[in-house]
Amino acid sequence: MSDLTKLSLEAALAGLKAREFSSVEITKAHIDACMDAADLNAFVTTDFTNAMKSAESSDAKLAKGEGGALEGAPLGIKDLFCTEGVKTTAGSKILGDFTPQYESTVTANMKADGMVMLGKLNLDEFAMGSSNETSYYGSVINPWRKDEDLVPGGSSGGSASAVAANICLGATATDTGGSIRQPASFTGTTGIKPTYGRCSRWGVVAFASSLDQAGPITRTVKDSAIMLQSMAGYDAKDSTSINKELPDFAAACDKGVKGMKIGIPKEYTMDGMPKEIEDLWQQGIKWLEECGAEIVHVSLPHTKYALPAYYIVAPAEASSNLARYDGMRYGERVEGDNLYDTYERTRAEGFGKEVRRRIMMGTYVLSAGYYDAYYLQAQKVRTKIADDFKRAWEKCDALLTPTCPSAAFAVGREVNDPVTMYLNDIFTVTANLAGLPAMSVPAALDNNGLPLGLQIIGRALDEETVFAASSALEKCAEFTAKPEKWWV
Amino acid sequence: MSEDNSGVTAETVKKIARLSRLHVEPDRLEFLADEMNGLLAWIEQLGEVDVTGVEPMTSAVEMAAPMRKDEITDGGVRDKVLANAPKTEAGYFVVPRSVE
After folding, report:
1. How many CA atoms are closer than 13 Å to the CA of A440, on its beta-carbon side?
2. How do residues A43-92 score in pLDDT, each as one tens digit?
3. Which residue in A22, A23, A54, A78 is the catalytic one?
4. How far apart are alpha carbons A119 and A113 in whole angstroms?
5. What CATH code is assigned to A4-258?
6. Region A385-414: what's the mean pLDDT?
7. Which residue spans of chain A are classified as CATH 3.90.1300.10?
8. Residue B36 to residue A360, Cβ atoms within 8 A
9. pTM beyond 0.95, yes or no
């Protein structure tokens, strides 16, 4: 039998359905691969015993010609999604051995569709980070290497690393400022952040509620479409959930880009950005043109203000969301001299440095006398950023940009300078602020042999165009490179 | 853009830490003040944007707030609610004394 871990999710599902191999076989192959890949530190918690049980039950369904859209496929779940009976950490010490008594809507949807869950994937603490180095459970290592260990990006670093290393067929992820797309770009994988509200946030540990959105990281565009179809959908338990019928995302992948207008925003470039990223962007333009798209030049003048606005809005919302970690009802408690001292010591010891930094910033920008100057100003700038996109949509159907201003960097390199680290998300954060769907597609290797991604941004609720354009890019790029397997 | 241009001081950090319910050792206050000032200096560029007449964004996607019936749909799961508590007794959370 060929190596079952090398299949795309699409091919694996077809093979399972045709009974070419069983779920037990493909699950076992992935469990072995996971155990070999311990050096990547992609998992916080594995759940292989239950995975094998799910696989057996999937096989029983498949034998009867039954089963859901993900039946029998071994997948990974970012450890930000609450999973009933399986420890959920959000990459933080403060949650201790927190074991949810309920299931997030996204993972419930996937379980109903027959997913086999291999375990919970590592991430930056509370999804705050761009390198997966802020996790209490240690840094995740990128399967791609250049003489030294590289970061997989963040915050969904475990998801990206696991998918790139062929230890999960696909993985859930979340994206608040770029946390799906930047790690996808760093690891040669594909990932989409759908329109805000497509995936329910119920049962997903909250970071910045007006920006948080779940999506998949996979090895192909079609795989992302298949996973998103299962993850997304209206949920009355999330008041920001979109109550609209889901389009057929997989069908959209085959639509092509003939006659599509692709906008090129001139502001998506940065001082010090490697020339090869600029060149790759130009190559992407050529590819889409060759596929029949019409290229138009557009301007998104407020792009440079997106990151500073994000670093007001996100910490503000985080400071409010993370107020719940008080050591009283769940998670770790550090006893102090009195109630307040207990709160303060619990939170100081339970939260890592980056999380504490953002809680303090958020508290500051929301505090009396500063609210108008910072938070209100940032929310107004956010409107201006969304308006930039609205004007662009008068001229084009989707935008093509680089995903990130750099390739993966060395572990430990940038962590001491918050702003340098924040700049990783400069091209991705705009889509979060405006609530738009956006996808990263691996497009080439740089001079060091490291993957680089291109990003497609679409109109709100128009993931179909994003999938169509991303598929076209994927076909032209013919990105088949895989990291050399050093971790066994 | 802030009303007070003196920036964040050690005293401000102390106040913010208190509001955030984060214990900060006194010898860290100056360092944290510098760090916050660094970030705020970068954020100050937002002040350049003319936002006259611009409404603040309150929802990422334009949609009406959904209405639902005010009814009990969940409950009766005391043991589940307590399952992850650091300290419980006789079906209650146990917390430090809050009124002396």
Report:
1. 34
2. 999 999 999 999 999 999 999 999 999 999 999 999 999 999 999 999 99
3. A78
4. 17
5. 3.90.1300.10
6. 95
7. 4-258
8. yes
9. yes
